[in-house]
Design a protein that fits this description.
Strand order of the largest sheet: 1-2-3-4-5-6-8
CATH class of the largest domain: Alpha Beta
Distance between the termini: 48 Å
Organism: Ligaoa zhengdingensis
CATH topology of the largest domain: TIM Barrel
Structural class: alpha/beta
Helix content: 40-55%
Strand content: 15-25%
Pfam family, one: Radical_SAM
InterPro entries: ELP3, Elp3/MiaA/NifB-like_rSAM, Radical_SAM_C, rSAM, rSAM_horseshoe, rSAM_sf
Bound molecules: iron/sulfur cluster
Domain Radical SAM core: 1-238
Keywords: 4Fe-4S, Iron, Iron-sulfur, Metal-binding, S-adenosyl-L-methionine
Shape: globular
CATH architecture of the largest domain: Alpha-Beta Barrel
Number of domains: 2
Length: 341
């Protein structure tokens, strides 16, 4: 059954500084932090809407800030409100997101007592210069230390990475992905940088000191990262920011597309198809492109982009499912009369 989150946003409480790209209130659309009553109400409402069976697979998720850096009393108020729903097995567990420098053995012990099962770290980059330029206030070493403590504590470990930040390069992004994968996270969220109004990045952009990502750049790198993490056993649970009117109204530039995940899948199929063409060199004309079931529309591409690419090369493609294929694999077939001897 599909995993679900009861997402509760705690914007900016506990952040020791304002990172260059961040305006959580705009990203999440949440202006005021919730209290325990709001958490209980959200859980009860989700339980009613989901039904008991689906809820058992869902997590209460505290997102949007630096959960373990918020005042301890407030953190406990929120956890206490969520805990009964987990103890009574209404929900599977509690997920939180926090800063790498706000993890220590004492806070992990507390999180365990309150039923937290998964911890996501906002790592963003593993390049200390990029972290410094973007006012993250922590180092790559903090990400490594926190990741080890979380894994040793038996929690599910998640990482969030961002690319295209001020001072970032494709090489630094790839190096970040390698260092994060080496820490063996269970899940990954990948965000191409988006420039929001009233942020440091917006100022740098207006002064001509920062070049934001373009959408094609964001798609190409996201596709590379998706493929890299998946082939290293890391499940990518999010690509790009959630679409919202608030976000779209406050975005100035950057690698945002409401269907980024779909575009990445199209791109990975495009690359596979090109590789297959080179290896198989099929005769022009009718060409059957077989892909994993459920992936046909991704292989065809948005606005038939991959089908058009083949047509422009002289093929008449037909995309079909093949149960023996998985992921972004594809296989070509063409009429027997045209088989090469
Ligand atoms: S990115 Fe995280 S730590 Fe930085 S300001 Fe935003 S919520 Fe706070």
């Amino acid at each position: 059954m599909k995993h679900a989150n009861i997402a509760i946003f705690v914007p900016h409480v506990g952040c020791p500084n304002r990172c260059s790209f961040c305006d959580q209130r705009r990203i999440t659309g949440v202006q005021a932090p919730p209290d325990g009553g709001a958490v209980r109400a959200a859980c009860e409402q989700a339980l009613q809407q989901m039904g008991e069976e689906r809820a058992r697979n869902a997590e209460v998720a505290f997102f949007g800030g630096s959960f373990t850096a918020i005042p301890r009393e407030y953190m406990i108020e929120l956890l206490e409100a969520a805990r009964p729903f987990v103890w009574e097995h209404a929900f599977h567990g509690i997920r939180i997101s926090t800063r790498p420098d706000a993890i220590d053995p004492e806070v992990l012990g507390l999180l365990r007592v309150y039923g937290v099962t998964a911890i996501e770290l906002g790592a963003q980059s593993m390049d200390d210069e990029v972290l410094r330029l973007n006012r993250r206030g922590h180092t790559a070493r903090d990400v490594e230390n926190a990741s080890r403590m979380i894994r040793a504590g038996g929690f599910s470990l998640g990482h969030q990475m961002m690319f295209g930040l001020y001072g970032d390069t494709a090489e630094k992004t790839i190096a970040t992905a390698r260092r994060l994968a080496a820490l063996k996270p269970d899940t990954m969220r990948v965000y191409p940088t988006v420039v929001l109004k009233n942020t440091m990045l917006a100022e740098l952009y207006e002064q001509g000191r920062y070049r934001p990502l373009t959408v094609p750049e964001a798609v190409r790198m996201s596709a590379w990262l998706l493929n890299y993490f998946e082939t290293h056993g890391v499940s990518v649970i999010r690509l790009g920011l959630h679409a919202s009117r608030e976000l779209e109204e406050n975005m100035i530039a950057g690698g945002y597309h409401a269907a980024l995940g779909e575009l990445c899948a199209n791109e990975l199929f495009r690359q596979r198809i090109l590789r297959e063409l080179e290896q198989c060199n099929p005769p022009l004309g009718k060409l059957v492109v077989e892909v994993a079931p459920g992936r046909v529309s991704q292989a065809v591409g948005q606005r038939r982009s991959n089908a058009l690419m083949l047509e422009q090369r002289g093929y008449q493609p037909k995309f079909c499912p093949n149960r023996s294929l998985t992921g972004y694999q594809c296989r070509f077939r063409w009429p027997l009369s045209k088989q090469r001897k």
